[in-house]
Amino acid sequence: MVATSVDPMIRIENVSKFYGHFRALDQVSLDVQAGEVLMIVGPSGSGKSTLLRCINHLEVPDAGRIVVDGILVDNDEKHINAVRAEVGMVFQRFELFPHLTVIDNICLAQQKVRRRSRAESQTIARALLEKVGIPEQAQKYPEQLSGGQQQRVAIARALAMQPKIMLFDEPTSALDPEMIKEVLDVMLALAHEGMTMVVVSHEMGFARNAAHRVAFMDQGRIVEQGPPDKIFGTPQHDRTQLFLSRILH
Amino acid sequence: MTVDHERPEIQPRPRDLRAHLDEFPWWLLIILSVIGYMVVQIIVDPIYRNIFNTILQGLSTTLYVTAISFVFALIFGLFLGLGRVSNSVILRNLSITYIEFIRGVPMLVLIFTISYAVVPLLARTFGLPNNAISLTSRAIIALVLIYGAYIAEVFRAGIEAIGRGQMEAGRSLGMSRWQTMLYVILPQATRNMLPALGNDLIALLKDTSLVSVLGVREITQVSRLSVSTSFRYEETYFILTLFYLSMTLILSLLLQWIQRRAKIKR
Ligand SMILES: Nc1ncnc2c1ncn2[C@@H]1O[C@H](COP(=O)(O)OP(=O)(O)O)[C@@H](O)[C@H]1O
Ligand SMILES: [Mg+2]
User: What is the pLDDT of residues B226-254, one digit of tens each?
Assistant: First the structure.
């Protein structure tokens, strides 16, 4: 057991977020330890994306505090950049840069943010394409790839920045069923390497194989959390039971 | 034995003559005929030829004013457009104010105001004599200030057409707002903006005729000066029309060609 005095990789304290008068996050508190894989499940509109996006300051919380690897995520541009350099994000709709080839997608931020040379960034990009299983697609444009391949490029693009934390926002929900596995396999490998991951997804297989902890969100709150078999097997709250009965049929 | 259904052979209907005739660019043929007729006139009729040669002297000024104004209007319009979509309330409102100002005043009036009021005022402020800036330069400054506002709106629309997710993807990789704008948003936006920018270039070419009021010797002014002594109104203004029509036609065909190439080249 790791000593409890070790600071968590992500600390979220009483974070609230409003859109107008609508409370998207309601005093959420959550810690994620280094190397932990946390899964967030919950109905649509429960604030999962909002919470994820607060971690790398794509959304600005109205109240509360978020500390990532010892860096306070506030409006200080230096802090924001430092946090974003450590946090990779994968989006539901991939968000690859359509005007750039696959390899240039992976190299752009390496060169502009990490100040790596062209050659160095390409070497890293090729190694990552190998890792996600599509080395032969380097010179293609995103639209020439299948959804599963695009999402794997997006993962490679985030990994190229050598993040300590990876955030996944429903990475497989825009994919055809036959492509889901190829993306989950990459994520699984990443989890086994010890990457700290926060994954919003309803993929039960991934939860059972990789997640250390599952948090259930509803109406902007974390209703309950615990190990996957406990949350899925013996959920304590009615709302969790109702939600699970719907997605597990 | 299986029943052999009598199935009619389904074939795509051969594209008939009618369809070809419907799609033929008749308008282009008509315009080219008019141009052709005028060209013949110019070749066979010495009066036409003289007037043509006179107007030709203004052509370089028209082209030069168009090109210079367009390049600077593009640069100015880009910055105005970026201001327009900026997060900063001050920058955004400054840009909107400027754009609405320009859009709310007739172009001819703006050309007078800028050339005879704004430029001299600025010249004086910087301790320059009133006539330090030539009329052609004033014309260019006026066109840049006016078209910058129009082009800013093109940039704004182009930038806003790119989904929010692209900016977030760039930001989540640690790139700044400006880096993401420069390397991710603008390259995509510019490609979508080519048709609108092309239209503005053609409009600008036509609007250079307005700076004749400043006495800039572009083709309209040269024509006006010529009729004032020759009184050959019909020949002169028909040929002047021919000049603009040919130039806009060539430009628009050229732009279509560039757009098709840009699409193929992705
Ligand atoms: N930019 C926004 N403006 C207004 N409302 C928003 C915005 N983003 C999200 N919301 C609202 O906040 C709530 C939570 O959204 P979200 O975090 O995307 O939920 P989830 O990812 O769990 O489906 C939803 O009701 C959504 O409509
Ligand atoms: Mg969501």
Answer: 999 999 999 999 999 999 999 999 999 99
> Residues with beta carbon inside 6 Å of ligand 1?
A 19, 24, 42, 44-50
Structure tokens at B232: 């050959």
What pairs with residue A228 in β-bridges? none
Residue B56 backbone zone (phi > 0: left; psi -120 to 50: alpha; other: beta): alpha
Contact between A235 and A204 under an 8 Å Cβ cutoff? The reply is: no
Tell me how far apart the alpha carbons of residues B140 and B61 are, in angstroms, rounded to a whole number: 11
Interface contact flag, A87 B172, Cβ < 8 Å: yes
* Residue of B165, B170, B175 lying closest to A93 (CB–CB): B165
Q: Minimal Cα–Cα distance from A225 to chain B, Å?
A: 27
ipTM over 0.85: yes
- Picking from B47, B6, B62, B7, the residue whose alpha carbon sits closest to that of residue B244 is B62
Q: How far is CA A104 from the centre of its chain?
A: 22
Structure tokens at B65: 């004013």
Angle in degrees, 0-180, between the axes of helices B233-264 and B219-230, rounded to the nearest 10? 170
Pairing of strands A196-200, A37-41: parallel
In the chain, the amino acid numbered A187 is M
Task: Write the CB contacts of A88 (distance below 8 Å, at least 6 apart in sequence).
Answer: A158, A159, A161, A163, A165, A166, A167, B172, B173
